[in-house]
Amino acid sequence: MQFSLKKYGVFAGGAALGALVDYVVTLGAVRLGGLSPSLALGLAMLISASAVFLWHDHVTFAAANQPGRIQRYLAFMGWSLAVFLLRAGLLELFGHFGMALPLALAAAILIASVINYVISAALIFPGNRP
Questions:
Q1: Does 130 reside within a domain?
Q2: Which residue among 82, 102, 111, 129 is the one 20 to 30 A from 90 at the CA level?
Q3: Half-sphere exposure in the Cβ direction for 42 (13 Å, CA)
């Protein structure tokens, strides 16, 4: 699979909305709701993952009219769980080393975004690469 900077840009556009939701909801749930950062991030990702799937299915990979949408959705949601675990692990790691929560959360989201693109393009939407 060849990495496409242009396709990553479109992917990142959709993911940016999800990341913004993740960032704002996570910080709000921690500060206002008293949740742990990892639990707050998990709840935020439940909200954002479905919306991001629709973006990728319609825009990034233009797969919406192809068969297998439910399978792609389930695969994407399963992969979103793996992305959550990666993000939460990075968030905990960065926090362990004293990084401030807003910076740690942004770094975890950014790192996981690149990995997410590569896996999504290769495994979830494989017939729709550039």
A1: no
A2: 129
A3: 11
